[in-house]
Amino acid sequence: MSWALRTEGLGKAFTLHLQGGTHIPVLHGVELSVAPGECVALAGPSGAGKSTLMRCLYGNYGAGEGRILLRHQGAEIDLASADPRLVREVRRETLGYVSQFLRVIPRVPTLEIVAEPMLARGLARAAALARAAELLARLNLPAALHGLPPATFSGGEQQRVNLARGFGPRYPVLLLDEPTASLDSGNRAVVIGLIEQAKREGAAIIGIFHDTEVRDRVADRLFAVEPVRRAA
Amino acid sequence: MSAPGMNAPLLEASDLALRYGAVPALDGVSLAIWPGEVVAIVGESGSGKTTLLRVLSGLLPPDAGSVLYRDPEGTAQRLEAMGEAALRRLHRTDWGFVHQNPRDGLRLGVSAGGNIGERLMATGARHYGSIREAATAWLRRVEIDPARIDALPRTFSGGMQQRLQIARTLVTHPRLVFMDEPTGGLDVSVQARLLDLIRALVADLGLAVLLVTHDIAAARLLAHRILVMRHGRVVEEGLTDRVLDDPQHAYTQLLVASVLAA
Amino acid sequence: MSATTGYNFGYLDEDTKRMIRRALLKAVAIPGHQVPFGSREMPLPYGWGTGGIQVTASVIGPADRLKVIDQGADDTTNAVSIRRFFARVAGVETTERTAEASIIQTRHRIPETPLREGQILVYQVPMPEPLFRLEPRVAETKRMHALADYGLMHVKLYEDIARHGHVAISYNYPVMVNGRYLMSPSPIPAFDNPKMHRNPALQLFGAGREKRIYAVPPYTEVRSLDFEDHPFEPVRARAGCALCGSRESYLDEVVTDDAGGRIFVCSDTDYCQSRQARQEAAE
Question: How is residue C6 annotated by DSSP?
């Protein structure tokens, strides 16, 4: 079976130099493979390393061992060993990430924040703004808010801006970290629709879903993230 | 993407070393910066970051190592072999330098328009009307009321002075801008606005920026890559969010831990 | 007129003259470039033409005929003193006629009568550095000259236009010599600047206190700095000379009474008197 993202022996540990060099292994030997059009939900108890795995997959955390293979622009690349410029390029073209919180850029209007990654991917400005507006409307953010910076928005509104920004560019691989955490049921349904549509368009999706109802609707399978046994 | 030299670094330094007496200010520093890339150099005072900026921009010769500059035609040149005239021209055209203190980067006795126009005039602009037009457009771009074009910078607030310095620097469309603590002496609210302006300009103009700062939040907002310096060495470098969220070196961890919610 | 004994010809000793001539040769070779020289104490104070006198003393020969003007006039104290000085220490002939002089030492003017090949115009220069009001660091001004980095001078012109609508420099208006060096023409009126351009005479500049010599060889290009849309314009009082009626010459304003009465007269006395003489002869 073809894959869009695959890990080989992925491991991650933290060394806390400020706490006397405490060594905390979190991930070990992770073998995850996700196909285009497939949605995989990370499962496991709190503290098992689901978020750490997501951050490794995005390159936000450096992988300690193993490889993170991605199909990027027709080539196979290893994100774990890619230099920063390649990581940036992969994030621009191939790999999207919707975190739980929007990192607000001061003074930039919502519409621009959503359009920005689409513009970076080379979409024409008019088309990018149109898709941004359409996604925001679909996520029930009234047009009156589109021209405002989201700094003063509620948590739920910011989350929806974040979702619009993440779904806008139609990345081949999309990482979703608790995408429905602070949403009401109506908006949850919208997000489910967005995920299903992205899958139909061939996106490989990896998600952490606290909300089991959403998870069961969108996930094709679960991937268990096991806590690493601490060395005695 | 097909412009010449797009896939080659604008500036490439290797094994730079410089000592101030017994103190190593730079100790085996190598780095490269590509077109359109914002690289932050962070570290505490005395870590060698300002020295590094001065060496990279040719203001200070290193004891050892070399700096390669690639011109717009794609030809690489060694900075140390360039000669003062060529270097000065470079600083007026393809490069810019934004100082921490606007006094070092502005002529306080010359009007805002004259400050912006100086680089144009130094590179041969001889049409008063066009210089004026360019100055007006740049004032607007850095959010200074164009009606202030004939005002002296000493009548400006600190934030305005810094924005004027940026306009004065960018007017010749440099490809690489060195910034030394550009938000250093400013109030927090003023800093945010300036950072945002720099972020927007950098994105719009596709500038490469080498930014020296001890402000981790500024580095996070602006930089694509970070170099962490300590005692004249680069102790850690990489993608901005990875270095700040998953710091490996003890010193980086300390630096990140010392910042509130960067 | 015979020379006073007890002095070397031209007052300066031969070694000093040789040193100054070397500086002059270098200055001629690099038009507009300021050459340092070992300025000597002269029997008059700085500001009275010590630089010009040393240059004149170094180039003057027994066959020369010297004219000295101060603000265009041959009969002011400074001009008369310097003329007498050379009559005594060099025994040379002097004249007030521009056309008859082989060397003309001047303070603040270029004669109206066009100069010709073979003549030498020696300027007295108080401050040779054209950038000195703009850049206080001498080392930096030297670097700017070395790199032909003159944007700052244009900034000054820009500031004038922004503030006054025109370049507000009426004398000592900066020029580019031979397309390379920015030069102070000494405090001559901007009106005189065009006369320097491709002038057949040799123009030498001496600054005694600042110990600098520079030169404009014959037929050298001398351009006043300007902007394309604000071209350099020599200005003069919009009047005719009250004595000779000239509408081309540079005029001095003379107050004639306590009631605010005033007239304009030629600043170049030789030019004015020649015209008056011709007019009388014609009548």
Answer: T
Determine, for residues B126 and C154 on separate chains, whether the beta-carbon distance falls below 8 Å.
Answer: yes
Q: How far apart are CA B197 and CA B222, in angstroms?
A: 10
ipTM of model over 0.95: no
For C56-110, the pLDDT digits (tens) are: 999 999 999 999 999 999 999 999 999 999 999 999 999 999 999 999 999 999 9
The single-letter DSSP state of residue A181 is T
Out of B199, B238, B253, closest to residue A84 by CB? B238
Give the pTM. Answer: 0.89
Question: Is residue B114 within 8 angstroms of chain C, CB to CB?
Answer: yes
CA distance C98 to C161: 36
Q: For the sheet containing C175-177, what is the strand order?
A: C181-183, C175-177, C222-224
Q: Which structural domains are found in chain C, ordered by start?
A: 14-224 (3.40.50.11310), 236-283 (no CATH)
Whether residues B248 and A62 touch (CB distance < 8 A) is answered with yes
Q: Which of B45-59, B90-104, C188-202 has the highest mean pLDDT?
A: C188-202
Chains B and C touch (3+ CB pairs under 8 A): yes
Give the residue from C61, C79, C60 showing the smallest Cα distance to C70: C79
pLDDT tens column, C172-198: 999 999 999 999 999 999 999 999 999
What is the pLDDT at residue B6? 54
C32 an active-site residue? yes
**Complete DSSP assignment for C25-91:** HHHHHSTT--EE--PPP-SS-TTSSHHHHHHHHHH--TT-EEEEEETTBSSSHHHHHHHHHHHHHT-
